[in-house]
Amino acid sequence: MCTGAVDQLQKQQYRIVGGTGAVKLCHWMRQKLIHGRPCYKEEFYGVESHRCLQMTPSVNICNFRCLFCWRFHGMSGFEGARCPEPEELLEGCIREQGRLVSGFKGDDRCDPAMWEEARRPNQVAISLSGEPALYPYLGEFIGLCERKGMTTFLVTNGSVPKAIENLSTLPSQLYVTVAAPNRELFDRLCVPRSAGAWDALMATLELMPSLDTRTVIRHTLVDGWNLGWEDAYARLDEIAGPTFIEPKGYVFVGDSRSRMTMDNMPSHSKVREFSEKIAARLSIEVLAERKDSRVVLLGEKSSRLRIV
């Protein structure tokens, strides 16, 4: 493994677990512990922000180079590293999360009971960095989390349909990112590193209706790039038949700032307008929204939002 890459990630407050795993506190962990402000996922799905373990089994290992991604695309050294076994990965991530939250104990604004809960996560967000479907023990890891009483949200770019199809245990909720309405824009915006990525994503969308778990299509919206095309997006959503659709605005953070500008961040009103057009085409409804996160949740009115 490249020592320089590890050092760079540690400076960014990542903690490396095994050869390819990592954990990092998200913005909303801090907001919840200090200010009592939860992530939109708490309002939408019932996930407690301060008990969410944001991690990845494949830090900086990705087969896309999405222009809107916050990662530094030039980092290498993890591809040949040893993948941690599921027990090592989960125990290591929980241990490192405990260390990362330790500093909040001395903050008078942090409720002691909430701090104690933060050291015992009950939700695993498999989404921090890289493409988790490239981790060879993903199903076993999700199964381990389930046996320990933890819910799991898996976020994937949809490029490895066989990995999703062959999961021995499905996550509590599966997110698939659909950030482009067609092949040409997909290639320019998501910059896949191998041929056939669009076809692989289509195979994942076709697979989704058969999965016995909650599914979400996330449309990451970048102003000046992929807003609009509501008819094309709706056709893709119809193929996937997800429980929910989550249009979410791109945020100008991390290394994406070297590829995008502030103008590429859509306003919440633009995200809402896009969402209403998608909802109308699919005869579904706006179920919830968070203006500060520029995100809208779409689905059937009868859909049960809270999963935990």
Task: List its salient traits.
308 residues; TIM Barrel; ten-stranded mixed β-sheet; 10 strands; 35% helix; 17% strand
As a percent range, the share of helical residues equals 25-40%
Low-confidence stretches: none
The shape is globular
- What is the mean predicted local confidence, pLDDT? 92
CATH architectural label = Alpha-Beta Barrel
Major sheet: size, sense and barrel closure? 10 strands, mixed
Strand content: 15-25%
> Could you say what the CATH topology is called?
TIM Barrel
Secondary structure tally, helices: 11
Counted beta strands: 10
Reading the helices and strands in chain order gives HEEHHEHHEHEHEHHEHEHEE
> Which secondary-structure class do the elements indicate?
alpha/beta
Radius of gyration: 19 Å
CATH superfamily: Aldolase class I
Task: List the domain count as a whole number.
Answer: 1
Strand order of the largest sheet: 1-2-3-4-5-6-7-8-10-9
What is the terminal separation in angstroms? Answer: 37 Å
CATH class call: Alpha Beta
